[in-house]
């Protein structure tokens, strides 16, 4: 442990956690992270966003460390703009999972994240993209499967996110991992993948362990990261499933929840 700060690793989710709703990071939060890293801690961003949807935020932060992107699929060296690891979805298994799910609940709206530093997000008819992130429309389902993918996003015309995720786990959980990452964001991932698997890889590269780690998050996809880390902090705006397993709850992402905890822990 560092003399100046009780954890050697700070793992932060982005959306709903480090970022405010307008995608900015407050000066107070930037200063608190800078003080913690000056005291000897490393900061790793751990996000469901794939690299192309994350890189501009890291650049704005002046962040040159490792980032875990794509729900754990990608370990990205932000300073070198280089992918260190990338796990792709078995497209045959994903196709089986989707077929089983559609047999149960009817047609789904689909999107998918292609692998790689410049991997596009493909969006099919009916799928509602949250925010104003760049996406490429597709109409032919064959286009979805024509190149390696990190994940498939699913939406349903009537089922809510929690309900859709529950059904997906029940009927397709043997083929893919199902993650609920935010409003309208239910994802099918490579089987066994989670933020915890990506974070453990990134931490190992830094010579750090779960026991060294404090993690911040707001959604059910952060549950594996909380289970891995020594201390899990849920934001006030967090999903009830994450709050239930958190070691503590801080203020919301709009109210500098990360900074409030880091300031308390700093000497």
Describe this structure in words.
With 267 residues, this protein is of the alpha/beta class. Helix content is 34%, strand content 23%. It contains ten helices and 14 strands. The chain has helices at 14-18, 27-38, 51-61, 91-105, 141-144, 161-172, 195-205, 223-228, 240-245, 257-265; strands spanning 9-12, 42-46, 66-69, 74-77, 82-86, 109-114, 121-123, 136-137, 149-155, 177-182, 185-189, 213-217, 231-234, 248-249. Strands 5-4-3-2-1-12-13-14 form an eight-stranded mixed β-sheet. It has a six-stranded mixed β-sheet with strand order 8-7-6-9-11-10, with helices on one face. Helix 3 links the parallel strand 2 (42-46) and strand 3 (66-69). Helix 2 packs parallel to helix 10 (257-265) and helix 4 packs across helix 6 (161-172). The protein is globular.
Question: How would you summarize what this structure contains?
Answer:
The protein is of the alpha/beta class. The chain has ten helices and 14 strands. The strands form two sheets. It has an eight-stranded mixed beta sheet with strand order 5-4-3-2-1-12-13-14. A six-stranded mixed beta sheet has the order 8-7-6-9-11-10, covered by helices on one side.
What is the overall pLDDT average?
94
Cα radius of gyration in angstroms: 18 Å
Strand content: 15-25%
What would the principal axes of the Cα set say about the shape? globular
Helix content: 25-40%
Helix/strand-derived category reads alpha/beta
- Poorly predicted sequence stretches spanning 5 or more consecutive residues: none
Spatial gap, N to C terminus: 13 Å
Major sheet size, sense and barrel closure: 8 strands, mixed
- Total of DSSP H or I helical runs spanning 4+ residues: 10
Sheet with most strands: strand arrangement:
5-4-3-2-1-12-13-14
What is the ordering of alpha helices and beta strands? Answer: EHHEHEEEHEEEHEHEEHEHEHEH
Total strand segments? 14
Oligomer: single chain
